[in-house]
Each structure stands twice: as C-alpha cells, then as structure tokens.
Amino acid sequence: xxxxxxxxxxxxxxxxxxxxxxxxxxxxxxxxxxxxxxxxxxxxxxxxxxxxxxxxxxxxxxxxxxxxxxxxxxxxxxxxxxxxxxxxxxxxxxxxxxxxxxxxxxxxxxxxxxxxxxxxxxxxxxxxxxxxxxxxxxxxxxxxxxxxxxxxxxxxxxxxxxxxxxxxxxxxxxxxxxxxxxxxxxxxxxxxxxxxxxxxxxxxxxxxxxxxxxxxxxxxxxxxxxxxxxxxxxxxxxxxxxxxxxxxxxxxxxxxxxxxxxxxxxxxxxxxxxxxxxxxxxxxxxxxxxxxxxxxxxxxxxx
Amino acid sequence: xxxxxxxxxxxxxxxxxxxxxxxxxxxxxxxxxxxxxxxxxxxxxxxxxxxxxxxxxxxxxxxxxxxxxxxxxxxxxxxxxxxxxxxxxxxxxxxxxxxxxxxxxxxxxxxxxxxxxxxxxxxxxxxxxxxxxxxxxxxxxxxxxxxxxxxxxxxxxxxxxxxxxxxxxxxxxxxxxxxxxxxxxxxxxxxxxxxxxxxxxxxxxxxxxxxxxxxxxxxxxxxxxxxxxxxxxxxxxxxxxxxxxxxxxxxxxxxxxxxxxxxxxxxxxxxxxxxxxxxxxxxxxxxxxxxxxxxxxxxxxxx
Amino acid sequence: xxxxxxxxxxxxxxxxxxxxxxxxxxxxxxxxxxxxxxxxxxxxxxxxxxxxxxxxxxxxxxxxxxxxxxxxxxxxxxxxxxxxxxxxxxxxxxxxxxxxxxxxxxxxxxxxxxxxxxxxxxxxxxxxxxxxxxxxxxxxxxxxxxxxxxxxxxxxxxxxxxxxxxxxxxxxxxxxxxxxxxxxxxxxxxxxxxxxxxxxxxxxxxxxxxxxxxxxxxxxxxxxxxxxxxxxxxxxxxxxxxxxxxxxxxxxxxxxxxxxxxxxxxxxxxxxxxxxxxxxxxxxxxxxxxxxxxxxxxxxxxx
Lengths: 303, 303, 303
Prior knowledge:
- The structure is a homotrimer.
- By secondary structure, chain A is an alpha/beta fold.
- Chain A has eleven helices and eight strands.
- Chain A has helices at residues 2-8, 73-88, 119-137, 154-160, 188-198, 200-209, 215-221, 233-245, 249-268, 271-282, 285-302; strands at 48-53, 58-63, 94-99, 142-147, 151-152, 164-168, 175-176, 226-228.
- In chain A, the strands form two sheets. In chain A, strands 1-2-3-4-6-8 form a six-stranded mixed sheet, sandwiched between helices. In chain A, strands 5-7 form a two-stranded parallel sheet.
- Chains A and C meet through helix 1 and helix 6 of A and helix 5 and helix 9 of C.
C-alpha cells in the first residue's frame, strides 16, 4: 500500500541534491536574539535563527537559507555552531528544529558543494555533514523536528536524528531518503538511522526505490510520529517537548545515549574512511556528469 | 497516537520501585501442592505458589507477595528456585506466570532492597534480578505471562521474558519500563529485551519517556500479544499454551535458544561489570536521596 | 490476532519437507525459449522455464517441477544455473519468480534428499540450498516473488530472498517457516532472512510455533507486500518491477548489497560448519525416524 502510494506520488527527482539559489535577493536581517553564529560571513544574513525561551529551557531553531535550506558547507557550519552553543548552555534542555522557508523543511545536501569542486572541498563538505549528524543524533537535549515542509534526503536525515517528528499534514509535502533516484547511494549511517527509525525491511525497500512518502504514509511506517495542521506544527512541537522535559535529564540522556551508542560509534570509528569513500565516489566522471545533468534540469525547470 | 495516549494516562510515578509492605497482616497459608520452595523462612508464607497439572504438563505460578509482588531479594530467590525446579522436571513443559494479588502483576523491583543498604546487599540483590531474567528468558519451557494487573518496570521485564503475553483488558492497568520517570536508567539487558519485543524505535521513545501503556496501547505496539477480560486471563493462557505444546519440544527449544542467544550471552559475559555498575550507581548520594524522597511520597499517599 | 488466526488455520503438517512424486506422469516439454539449463539430464523435462523479455529486461522464472516444486538437488542445481546465467546477462535487470504448478509456489526442501541418504549426499544437497539462498538474496537483479500458491518452509525462504512479494489472495494458500512443526529447526540464515523481513519478535513467535500464515495475515505482519487476485499475480509482478527498474541500477544494487551484506557474510563465513551441522543433525536416528514417519503419513494421505 505505502509503496504503491509512494510510487504514485513520485513527482520527479526533487530531493537529495538541491541547488543553492545563486542570487538570493530577499536578504533579511534576522539576527538571533541570543545566539549569533561566530564564523560566518557577515555580508550574508544568518542561515540559522535561534529563539531561546529561558523560562521553558527550549530553543527553536529556524532554518532560513533561501530558497530551500540546502545543506551547504556554510549552512552546516552555522548549524553545528548553533547546536554546540545550545548543548553547552545548561539552561537549554530542548531543541525544536524547523524551517522558516515556505513549503520545505530542508531539501538536503547542496549539490553545488560537490559539483566541479576539488577533492579537498568535497572532503570538507562531507565532514560537515557527518558533524551535523553526530551533533544532532548524539545530542543531550530533547530534539523535536517540526517538519513544516518537504524533507527529502539530507533533510529527512536531519529529521530522523531527532527524538520525535511532527509533520505538517499537507499531502503536497513528502519525506524520505531518495538518493537512489539520483543515482547516489545513501551512506551506511543514513541507512542505520533509518533502520533505527522504521526497521530493516521498510528501510531496505525505501532506500532501494528512493521512496518519498506523503505525510500520511510516513506516519503509517513510523517515519514521522505525528501529523498536525501546517500552522500548528511548531506550536505542537513546543507543547510536546514539555512532556519530554518532565523526565529527569540525566536518566533520559543516559537512556538515549545507550540506545544510539552503537550506531554513533560506527561512524565515529570510520569517519575518515567514510570521507575518503565519498570523495572518491563523488569526483568520478560519471557521477559528476550525472550531477551536471541534474543541475541543468533544475535550471530549466525554474526558467 | 500511542505516545499521546500514554502520556495522557500517566498517573504518577507508580512503577520500577515499589515499597514492600512492612507489616503484611494478611498472611495466608498457601503452600504449593507440589512444590515447596526450600530456602525460605517458614515464619512467612511462600511468595510463590505453583500449581502443576501433570496431565497437561503445565505449571501455573501465582505470585503472592502482598501487597504488590515487589521483586525483593527473598521473592526473587524463591521465584528462581521454583523456576529451576520446574525446569529440571521433565514432565513440566509449560509455565504460566500470573499474580494472586489484586490489580497488579508485579510492581517491579523492591525499593527497600536498594535504599540505605550496603554495597554488598545491593550487589546480591542485583544478582538475583539478573538470575530471574536469565532463568526466564532462557527457559526451555513455553512461558506465558497472564498479566492480570499493572506491570511497570521489573514487572514488565518479567512479562517480556515470556514467549507470549496475555493482558487483562482493563484500562486502569498499565505496563512499561518507566525507570526514567524515577531518575533511574533501565540497564542494557532490559533495553535489549524490549527491543526484541517492540523494536528499536518504539523502545527508544518508550524508555526515554518512561512510558506506561494501557492494555490497548500495549497491544498496538506489540508489548502484549492479546487482551482478554480480566477473569479470563489465566484460563485463556492455559488454553493458549496447549497450542505451543503441540510443537515438538526439542525443535521449539533450539529455535527459541537461537533467537535469544545473542541477547543472553551479552549479559552472561558482562554480569559482574553490570553488578558493579548498578552498585556504584544506586549507592550514590543523589540517587539515594531521590529514592528516599520517592519512598516518603509513597508513604504519604498511603496515609 | 495473527497468531490466533494462524493457529486456527493450521491444516496439518504440510511444509518444509515435501516428497518428490516418484512417478511424475505428466511430463511436459516446456523448454525455455532463451535459456536451456546446461547440466541436466535430458531424459527429464526442465524443472525451470525462463521467459526473458529483452524489451523490458525482465525474466520470468517458472518453477515447473511436478507436483509441488520440491527443492531437490536437481531442481536447485537447475535453478542456480538459471539465475547465474541471468545474473551475467547485462541486459537482464529484473527477475520474477513464480510457479507453473497449481496451488503451490514451492513446497520446500525435498525430503527424499535427506532420508536414507549418505552424509555426502546430504552435504551436497545442503550446499545447493545454501547456494540458492546466496544467489537469490545477493542478486544484483530486482527480484520479485509472484507467490501464486502455498509457500511453506524452503518455499517461504525463497520468497523472502526477493525484493518484493506479491501473493495470490486465496485464503486456502499459506506461507511461513513451519519447520518446528516437523521437529526440524530452521537454520540461522533462514531466521536472519525472516528477521530482516518481519522483525525479531514476529520471527521468534512464528518460528517457535512453525506458523503458516494465510495471505491476509502474511500481509499484516509484512511477510508479503501485496495481495492480488490469483490470475493477476504474475501480471502485477511484471508491472511492479518496471517501477523498480526506473531506479539507476548501480545505486540500487549498492544499496541492496549494503543492506544485506552482514546477513550474507554470516553464512559465507560459516558455510562449511553449517553444512556439517546439518549433516550431523539430519542423519541422526531420531530425525531419520521422524522423517520416515512423515513420508509414510504423506503416502497414506495421497492414497
């Protein structure tokens, strides 16, 4: 059922790799009230805006990198710095991750970081993807994804790192690891994260087919935990997180860490070889050609 | 859904640690017709009553330690002896575990065994909890839990060791590993047993939140296998077990052992370090204080 | 529910071991239009008929070993040769496995290959069962099982090696690993394949009880993915496979291989000891006696 529905709704190759809009005209001055990322180019607006409510101990992280929150090196660096700051702030116990962009949570890895770039650049980029996963999947905070738009590939990965996922109940959105549709393979730690979320069998089929699930189907297979009307997603997330915060931090954190340790250790102890593997793969002529064709296609679609 | 339902029904901190009633006035003389535990103090009634039906090869083990079948050192010792005797009795092929106490299957580990006690005592206690789990999870008998009351923490663990779980369809009862609600962490083999029962994702969320599930929700996630009217639970359990006994013992036992071996080996080969870890944890000042506060709270509630 | 339904429908000991009809009178001359197995005795008709459609890249493999597609040494050898040929043919990207026999997909391992046979013969037979599993579970092709009849034991194993399972919606058919019902134990790689398909808990219960599931129940637990009217199963399978073939081969193959590697490696590195274990087990007097009794019973039922 879910397969057929997912296949039916396959609306093309949106996903994994999204193209950073080269001329982002709508520059907004959204500076985080509390946390200003340190290592960014101040000629561009921040890609992450964090609202931290000291009374509840909950931070809401708005991803605001137009047009589709592509996971670029800059974006990931900014995100990791933000998460690390919150992690070190004892008063911050919960994190809601959401999008400030319309219709999309995150479109996944930024294709321009891997197309026509040096092996060194590709390696640095991949390390930042790993870092994002390690920081979020291993976070001591309660993390809730408020998925208020489509969330393919890397966007789905980010959502799966969270403790709980609430998605907008809009059938035009979808979520999933759709890498194979683009001729790319989700790395083992993407797979492991999905296996931990929806089990071996569903993961095997979803990854082979690169399935993107509509919210209702994602709920059915357990890829998300709850659906809410689009304009309620963030509010419900902050309500839900208060229930998680009722549990003593220390016990909850140890429990979470024990449940995820094996999966995290696997990447930690294979980090360099995973980077090497990615760089070798992505710099292949055939893959570069395929990425180029995909970017061409995206450009045409926009024009 | 299940989360929201479970959270809604959280009726306080009942669970994991239950306080042994210090003056149990209703002493009954329920001596097992066939099996009299050997190593107990005969000034107290037996905490375990076993009815063995030689015609069917099925033993029914009634836990009868008022008020709530707390898993004390004495209780666990008696239970382990009973199970071992049945295990060695070739004519006994099936075991139904149930409660003779009203409204509760077992309230879990006895808090008085870990509060204000010496490290040696805590260690001996923890070894008996391990022993119970090893005996039941590795049993060659068909084991069915007839869960005729609430079954938090250690009570849930005991139920999960069985081959099949039938629970009373009474929405006032609940079942789950709620350790984190008390600031305690379920040890890795509790986690593994739950993962083997309901899968990684459900376990991760249930354990982080210390969720207690109503029967209908427990059925939905697979924590129990069947619901029956309260007064039918034991009868249905003995009927159900006959179907399991239709399978040749040897093949069924090897199958069960192969399916559980990895999980059992993990504790067997880490038994001493697990005891050491528990003793270090439970004798910490902060944990002792929290246990003390919890016992105070229970006393007040009863008064 | 599923358990009770499955138990209710247990219609005897059909399964695992099927007896090869000694006098197969209905010899048909169905020679594969494209692939003629090389190493078979041409005095018997081929047990496997392959139709390969070069325009779609999809091969349909019809098992046609009367009466019930028992997995004999000859049958398995022929099947493995066919699969290997298709695997090496770059133009063949998808494989549908189905039965040309009425009412049965495959009845599982051929009992006559293990009854009254030399250890050497039993070992050679077992190696061919392993080979079938290794070839199918590790296939680079998209594999879909069109299960147009009952599929117990080895038949279920074969179906589970595929990427997707479509079963005839006929309540008289069933599917499952029912080895324990015959006093036999499914080997670890049968178990692993089922765990990868329906998870640990369902596998544990199904294998202990040797459950055979009706199509509707098999769908519920995820043992099959889709039900179709009996006369539509093959057509729907070839339609479905085209969706899988829309995914770039290379990415899909690597993904499949990564998801199954651990399970496959486990048998590959324990192949000889697994054979030794099987031979020791099956040649035991008690097991031989039990097999003999089962064959007697089958003979009487037919008479």
